[in-house]
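REVIEWER CHECKLIST
Item 1: Sequence provided? yes
Item 2: Single chain? yes
Item 3: Sequence as submitted:
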Amino acid sequence: MKKLFSISVAVILCMSATINANAQKSKSFAGTVKFSIRYEGDTDPQRHIPQEITYTILGNKTKMQQQVFIQIQDGDAVTSTTMFDIPGYRVAYTKPKADILEQQSTVKYTYTKGSETKTICGYVCDKYDITVLNLEDDEEMTFTVYTTTEVGDNNNINAIEYPGLTGYPLYTEVESNGVKTILEAVEMKKTKVKSVDFLMPSDYKVLTKEEFQEFIQQLFGGGGEE
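Item 4: Structure as written out by the authors:
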């Protein structure tokens, strides 16, 4: 179950920076996107894993909060900040651009655009089959996504999770260990969002990379990485 949880988090959180002509037409989106999370397969993880998640978006910045877990990603700066809002112990770690690019250099992303489209929350989305190959151990993961260029200023919004992918995914499907995990946008609201919403509150304790890794290992009972 821990491995299934890790895979689901990677999918939730779990995303070439070349901007093509189609992406140049994208608009800056400010608001919220609510995703449903459902599972198909031999097991029933619904009782253990959240069934919906909401992202706040401003241009190429995204923020997700699920109970005590908060993650802010800045696709323009290519940074990812993870926070845990635990009573009496609010901690945070920001992964810098250099570390993200180094991690991305160990994998190969392949995007294959399909002819199918899907209309999600009123947005026409293009299908992409994604292959992520780990160059160190040759392990491979495959995803199917449907993306819209109406969210994000350009494809920088994917700079962390899916570098070079055109359009923001409103649908993601991945199968592992006989369980298929599907994230699909079910509600999109354009609202006023402030840049300050993506800043770390001053009362958080900022951890080093090593301190954060130790914290994650303790939190999840050993074995975990940012």
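Item 5: Key structural point noted by reviewer: Confidence is low (pLDDT under 50) at residues 1-26.
Item 6: Recommendation: ____
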